[in-house]
Specification:
Number of strands: 12
Structural class: alpha+beta
Distance between the termini: 19 Å
CATH architecture of the largest domain: 2-Layer Sandwich
CATH class of the largest domain: Alpha Beta
Number of domains: 2
Helix content: 25-40%
Largest sheet: 8 strands, mixed
CATH topology of the largest domain: Ribosomal Protein S5, domain 2
Oligomer: single chain
């Protein structure tokens, strides 16, 4: 039996600049952090060593690789020659909520298959292979930030070079500043999930052909750089203003990013002391994130009491193997 644990992530600034159509022309950057909400994947040999038992949001019994319906599992198992396994997935947070659940799944699955087949891969290479699976093999209209954030863990400034190279810079804050940042971030579930593909496809189109929206994304990239510098200087409260400014820019990138309910809750939080916030992920639903100083947290929580608050802290480990029992692990790998 092998079990991997991979964190979800919160993206603060620069989202959208990790799409290929943008970074190949201009380069891009994001600032994000992984959190202690995880997806857990486990695998062990199946009784029938030629078929598959797969348990995720539904249960599959597949006789061949081609019979597997889940596209990420089918693609990754194909790359590793995995067969004859019992696979299980469970997570702390629902999918489609803006915390990079799909990429966390892909990263965790690659980590799992590496261990199962006695292969070693560093975290950046795991992230790059996850990008290849999702973006190149499966043609998902997504960017490259989530794979690196979930694989590497921690508070990171991630740059996307024009040639496709990704550089991950870990940001090390003073302990007190780190704790203030962690405590001043409040996250609330809107009660709605969404598929990111349609919003990201429109955003990709707009940031290729629409000069105003391209300029908006330029400004969002600059915000990620500004936020990095402010955090390193210890100006933690800069997070609020930068989140707010970035959210105003982001709403202009595509239809469906926000809606009247999201705008309502956002304004309530701001009226009750939040310094800034944003909707996490592509848009349309999921989690609202706010930066709120200690003296205003009770007011903001009361104003948003209709929403479910999710308590969290930062994760620094990235994807990990948390259980490995070699004694009962025999492999059937072609």
């Amino acid at each position: 039996m092998i079990i991997t644990r991979t964190p979800f992530r919160i993206s603060f600034a620069g989202g959208g600049s990790d799409l290929k159509n943008y970074y190949e022309k201009f380069g891009g950057s994001v600032l994000s952090v992984s959190i202690n909400k995880y997806i857990y994947l486990s695998m062990h040999p199946y009784f029938d060593d030629k078929s598959y038992l797969l348990k995720y949001s539904k249960t599959e019994q597949a006789k061949t690789l081609e019979d597997i319906q889940h596209p990420i599992i089918r693609t990754v198992f194909g790359k590793y020659g995995i067969k004859g396994v019992d696979f299980n997935s469970s997570a702390d947070i629902p999918s489609g909520t803006g915390l990079a659940s799909s990429s966390a799944f892909t990263v965790g699955l690659i980590n799992l298959c590496n261990v199962y087949t006695d292969k070693y891969m560093n975290k950046e290479d795991i992230a790059e292979l996850a990008c290849k699976v999702e973006i190149e093999d499966l043609k998902e209209p997504i960017g490259k930030q989530d794979q690196y954030a979930c694989a590497c863990g921690g508070l990171n400034f991630i740059e996307f070079q024009k040639d496709g190279v990704v550089d991950v810079e870990k940001l090390y804050l003073q302990t007190d500043a780190y704790r203030v940042l962690e405590k001043n971030l409040l996250m609330f579930y809107t009660g709605k999930t969404r598929a990111a593909g349609s919003i990201l496809a429109e955003q990709k189109k707009n940031t290729t052909n629409d000069e105003a929206k391209i300029n908006n994304l330029h400004k969002m990239v600059q915000l990620s750089k500004d936020l990095k510098e402010e955090l390193l200087k210890g100006n933690i409260n800069a997070m609020g203003e930068i989140l707010h400014t970035g959210w105003m820019y982001k709403k202009e990138l595509a239809n469906g990013i926000s809606n009247p309910d999201i705008d309502h809750y956002y304004e309530l939080a701001m009226q009750n002391g939040a310094l800034g916030g944003k909707l996490l992920g592509a848009g349309g639903g999921g989690f609202l994130l706010f930066y709120v100083e200690e003296q205003h947290r009770t007011r903001v929580r009361k104003a948003l009491q209709e929403l479910k608050e999710i308590n969290f802290s930062f994760d620094s480990k990235g994807t990990q193997v948390i259980y490995y029992n070699k004694r009962d692990l025999y492999r059937k790998v072609v």
